[in-house]
Amino acid sequence: MLKRLFSEEEIANTVKDLARRIESDFANEEILFVCLLKGSFVFTSDLVRRVRNPSRIDFMRVSSYGNRMATRGNVEIIKDLEEDIENKNVVIVEDIIDSGLTLTRVRDMLLARSPKALKICALIDKRCRREVEIEGDYVGFTIDDGFVVGYGIDHAEYHRNRPDICVVVEEDET
Ligand code: IMP
Ligand code: MG
User: Fold this and answer.
1) Is 84 among the catalytic positions?
2) For ligand 1, is residue 46 a contact (CB within 6 Å)?
3) Pairwise CA distance, residues 162 & 141, whole Å
């Protein structure tokens, strides 16, 4: 079953707060938001509508093989950016930082393209699960271990359309 962790209202307030922090860091400079598909599509759409800087949005989809030991941390680009990010202010928008392996690889790939600035904005940080050293510059919620869904985040492709964020709990845990 699903147990609610964050309501629509809590999420909206947190997104607003993240947007304020991004705005103040980038003054009135132009920002290119990189939405990591699919999990951050809802988060990105809410976040960018709260940021008043001149902004552009691009999408990237990567597959990670974080669970397979042989290819641990390998990240394959399924859909690359269409924008050239050289000398641009880039903000990567990610749903969840878990082990940190995916974001580390994405960050390194994008850094190799020489952006002017590269920041990470993550809605959820599962800090206790981290396996590599990487921090979000803007983090919405920090949670303990647990599998979450909703607000764009899926379990086997379901629940992305939930407006709130829930944790999946086994029946006998309740
Ligand atoms: P990492 O490489 O271990 O940091 O994996 C991060 C990615 O795993 C996130 O972008 C999510 O797509 C996925 N993920 C991690 N935890 C969860 C969860 O609780 N629910 C759904 N997806 C998750
Ligand atoms: Mg993801």
Assistant:
1) no
2) no
3) 17
- Residue 100 CA to ligand 1 center (angstroms) comes to 9
For the chain, the domains span 8-144
Q: Residues 139-160: pLDDT tens digits?
A: 999 999 899 999 999 999 999 9
Q: Which atom of ligand 1 is nearest to the CA of 100?
A: 4
CA-only gyration radius of the chain, Å:
16
Using an 8 Å Cβ cutoff, are 90 and 34 in contact?
yes
pLDDT in tens, 7-54: 999 999 999 999 999 999 999 999 999 999 999 999 999 999 999 999
Ligand 1 centroid distance, CA of 107 (Å): 16
**Beta carbon of 120 within 6 Å of any ligand 1 atom:** no
Domain 8-144 CATH (choose: 3.10.450.50, 2.60.40.10, 3.40.50.12780, 3.40.50.2020): 3.40.50.2020
- Predicted TM-score of the model (pTM): 0.94
* Distance between Cα 97 and ligand 1 center (Å): 6
Give, for ligand 1, the residue of 35, 67, 71, 95 to mutate: max count of ligand atoms closer than 8 Å to Cβ: 95
Examine residue 88 and say whether the peptide bond preceding it is cis (omega within 30 degrees of 0). Answer: no
For 125, other C-beta atoms within 10 Å of its C-beta total 20
174 pLDDT exceeds 60?
no
Q: What is the mean pLDDT of residues 131-138?
A: 96
